[in-house]
Amino acid sequence: MSTTRPYSPGSPEPSGASGASSGRQVRTLSLGGQSGVVPLARDFARQALYAWGWLPAATADQRAAAEDVLLVVSELVTNACLHAEGPETMEISCDNKVIRVEVSDRGTGQPAPRTPHRAGRPGGHGMFIVQRLCLDWGVVRTPGVAGKTVWAELGAPA
């Protein structure tokens, strides 16, 4: 599902919320001016998944869910690199049911799955992958502030 809502229904306030009262755990990584940001973001997300008990995975479903999170991180950070002069920050948060990934950049473009999607063509699959793997995703823009935050939410494994 694609949306332009600033955050999904029932979720806490977007970026900046402490998460303390909701039981959400939040980690933020500064990426501005860094090189090798995609592997850096994946490593950061992997460490969070270990800290939150998603890894090491006990079942194939849990392993697949963790790999989906890492793939979404890669796609969102890569899109910021390709289309928005690079990411500024990545935030990853978790409660018992949902992991939320947010990547902020200074770009003005609007991410969208390429349509029509053609599986055999190289490139252009990032947001299609995000759309297929996630419960929901969207874009947050703050009036008067350059850039945007692209967010995506994935469900916890059973």
UniProtKB/TrEMBL annotation:
Q: Which residues form the Histidine kinase/HSP90-like ATPase domain?
A: 40-151
State the UniProt keywords alphabetically: ATP-binding, Kinase, Nucleotide-binding, Serine/threonine-protein kinase, Transferase
So where does this one cross the membrane? none
Comp. bias intervals (Low complexity): 1-23
* Protein name as catalogued: ATP-binding protein
| UniProt entry tagged with the keyword ATP-binding | yes
One MF term from GO for this chain?
Answer: ATP binding
Lineage of source species:
Bacteria, Bacillati, Actinomycetota, Actinomycetes, Kitasatosporales
